[in-house]
């Protein structure tokens, strides 16, 4: 296929508008290269836009600014320590881990220079902060709130984030005041929203609530619509991409890579319903997400998991991974997912936004048990480790779903499946059997078809640990991240609290996910590799289309979005440097 056969040609073509796409686009534009991003759905941003939008960026400028200790060596030691626990993770070679630690802070510096407003999340411990090089304060970077009205006609084309907090989160009369102003959602960043859950418990958080209300009022008067999380980062990226001249097309699915003499030269998409061949002089970057929405691929690579439990966006259907395989790409880590424990009240399976149970069983006054009533993990661990532990347990003891067992103190103080602390739970939850309620642990066990003496023994044993303030079975609370998931105002432990006050409750927990974590194998330049280790010329990939650089672990918040941006940045730089050689 020669250049002349193309309907159109750009320097660089990106398939999918995920995290790395616009980062690569901005890098290319800063060197004057032409870039086209093709997105198959009708909106831009991918699961990245729906997400919390946080990025795991070791040794970043904001840590330095705030005097938080980190270094290349420290972060590398941490990733190496995680890798040492893993087998068969070709996405996580020493060269790639080193490149990630080196390039991630540079990528952030570049975005800041491009006017993307980012900041450090105040505190978000690494998920394995107990390992060498782990950071108890964390390495997570977030975007500042973004006024989507600045996107003009593109506003409708930005995929919304799941980070939307209704004003009912605010105590009376703040919520009524906001409602009277026509404000229905809180303009708060992800870390602020996590704090606001404790508005009734702390003066600092009450002051934060007032600040958020004032911000909402000012934004309302100024005609601004502030969004947070993934929509903030992708909104800011979209704005910068459009400003610098990146061409972005929605409703443009790529079905094939165009290969000539062993090198990828372009892509086949559609335009106005007809096939459209687009050439790429410097290469093609695939940033098309994973296969969370493809049950056939799940059954092949991650059996026992379900599309019904994913929060990934509808475009996450994996065809570009299969297309790269068709051209010889090696795949790895395909059995890995970014698990995310969920509790699904009636109707939630069908819904796009499912309530996460990330903090549920890590809060005081609750534990997770399998279907025999036995506790089997540290409920405070990373969501990926949590869901893996569920599936592993299920191989020997029925554990999907498992049961979160809680008491009245929990229901009074903490959120349950998206409902506010202390609120009356929908009658349908009881009628459908989703929420169990009983006056004793033994009666609760009978409702769960568990041997009452087993569940009673499990709860009694946990309560003994609470009294000693030490979880002798699973060490819950020893890690900073376990405590972070708990209640900062609960003493003496943020995460250990007795299950002691009737009535007692239980809800099912399933090993859901926010996406897949395996894909094509890439090298330290983000080039796609064949099984023999050779490079498929002209083909780059990033994000969850690839086997993660983090291997089979999740180092900290932002370990999917961070790598997607970083490898997009790396790919663009490699493609440009190759063209000048
Ligand atoms: C609710 C939620 C919260 C999360 N929070 C975080 C977080 O804060 N931090 C974090 O690191 N991770 C988070 N995750 C996980 C993370 O968002 C995703 O794993 C990550 O965003 C994937 O990014 P990506 O760049 O690989 O692809 P995506 O952002 O998913 O983008 C891929 C795009 O490619 C498009 N596409 C697919 N196939 C084609 C094709 N053939 N042609 C053209 N376009 C195509 C898709 O439609 C999609 O728009 C969260 C996920 C969810 C669901």
Word description of this protein:
With 581 residues, the protein is of the alpha+beta class. The protein has 18 helices and 22 strands. Strands 1, 2, 10, 11, 12, 13, 21 and 22 form an eight-stranded mixed beta sheet that branches. The longest helix is centred in the first third of the chain and has 20 residues, at 94-113. The protein is globular, with a radius of gyration of 24 Å. It starts with 7 loop residues before the first strand and ends with a helix. Flavin-adenine dinucleotide (FAD) is lined by residues 15-20, 38-41, 46-48, 50-54, 162, 253-254, 287-289, 311-313, 315-316, 319-320, 338, 514-515, 543-545, 558-562, 564. Flavin-adenine dinucleotide binds at residues 15-20, 38-41, 46-48, 50-54, 162, 253-254, 287-289, 311-313, 315-316, 319-320, 338, 514-515, 543-545, 558-562, 564.
Summarize the structure in short:
The chain is α+β, with helices and mostly antiparallel strands.
């Amino acid at each position: 296929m020669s250049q002349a056969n193309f309907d159109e040609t750009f320097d660089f073509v990106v398939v999918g508008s995920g995290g790395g796409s616009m980062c690569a686009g901005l890098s290319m534009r800063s060197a004057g290269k032409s870039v086209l991003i093709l997105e198959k759905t009708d909106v831009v941003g991918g699961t990245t836009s729906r997400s919390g939008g946080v990025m795991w960026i070791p040794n970043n400028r904001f840590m330095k600014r705030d005097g938080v200790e980190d270094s290349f060596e420290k972060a590398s030691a941490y990733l190496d320590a995680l890798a040492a626990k893993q087998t068969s993770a070709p996405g996580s070679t020493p060269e790639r881990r080193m490149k990630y630690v080196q390039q991630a802070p540079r990528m952030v510096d570049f975005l800041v220079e491009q006017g993307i407003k980012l900041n450090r999340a105040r505190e978000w411990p690494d998920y394995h902060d107990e390992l060498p090089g782990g950071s108890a304060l964390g390495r997570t970077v977030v975007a500042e709130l973004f006024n989507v009205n600045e996107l003009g006609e593109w506003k409708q084309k930005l995929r919304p984030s799941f980070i939307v907090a209704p004003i009912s989160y605010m105590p009376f009369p703040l919520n009524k005041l906001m409602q009277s102003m026509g404000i229905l959602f809180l303009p708060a960043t992800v870390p602020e929203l996590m704090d606001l859950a404790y508005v009734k418990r702390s003066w600092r958080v009450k002051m934060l609530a007032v600040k958020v209300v004032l911000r909402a009022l000012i934004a309302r008067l100024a005609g601004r619509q502030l969004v947070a999380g993934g929509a903030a980062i992708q909104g800011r990226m979209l704005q910068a991409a459009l400003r610098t001249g990146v061409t972005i097309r929605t409703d443009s699915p790529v079905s094939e890579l165009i290969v000539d003499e062993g090198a990828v030269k372009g892509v086949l998409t559609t335009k106005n319903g007809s096939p459209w061949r687009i050439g790429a002089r410097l290469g093609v970057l695939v940033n098309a997400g994973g296969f969370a929405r493809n049950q056939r691929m799940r059954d092949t690579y991650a059996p026992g998991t379900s599309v019904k439990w994913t929060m990934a966006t509808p475009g996450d259907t994996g065809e570009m991974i299969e297309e790269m395989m068709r051209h010889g790409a090696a795949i790895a880590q395909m059995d890995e997912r970014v698990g995310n424990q969920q509790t699904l009240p009636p109707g939630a399976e069908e819904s796009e936004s499912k309530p996460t149970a990330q903090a549920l069983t890590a809060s005081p006054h609750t534990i997770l048990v399998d279907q025999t009533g036995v506790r089997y993990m540290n409920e405070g661990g990373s969501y990926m480790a949590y869901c893996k532990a569920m599936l592993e347990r299920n191989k020997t003891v029925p554990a999907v779903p498992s049961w979160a067992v809680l008491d009245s103190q929990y229901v009074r103080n903490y959120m349950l499946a998206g409902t506010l602390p202390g609120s009356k739970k929908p009658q349908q939850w009881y009628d459908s059997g989703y929420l169990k309620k009983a006056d004793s642990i033994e009666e609760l066990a009978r409702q769960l078809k568990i041997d009452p003496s087993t569940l009673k023994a499990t709860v009694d044993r946990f309560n003994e640990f609470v009294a000693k303030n030490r979880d002798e079975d699973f060490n819950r609370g020893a890690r900073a991240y376990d405590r972070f998931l708990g209640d900062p105002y609960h003493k003496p432990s943020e995460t250990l609290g007795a299950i002691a006050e009737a009535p007692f409750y239980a809800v099912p927990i399933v090993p859901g996910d926010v996406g897949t974590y395996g894909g094509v194998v890439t090298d330290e330049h983000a080039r796609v590799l064949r099984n023999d280790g050779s490079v498929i010329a002209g083909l780059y990939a990033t994000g969850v289309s690839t086997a993660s650089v983090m291997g089979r672990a999740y180092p900290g918040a932002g370990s999917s979005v961070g790598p997607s941006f970083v490898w997009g940045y790396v790919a663009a730089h490699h493609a440009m440097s190759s063209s000048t050689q």
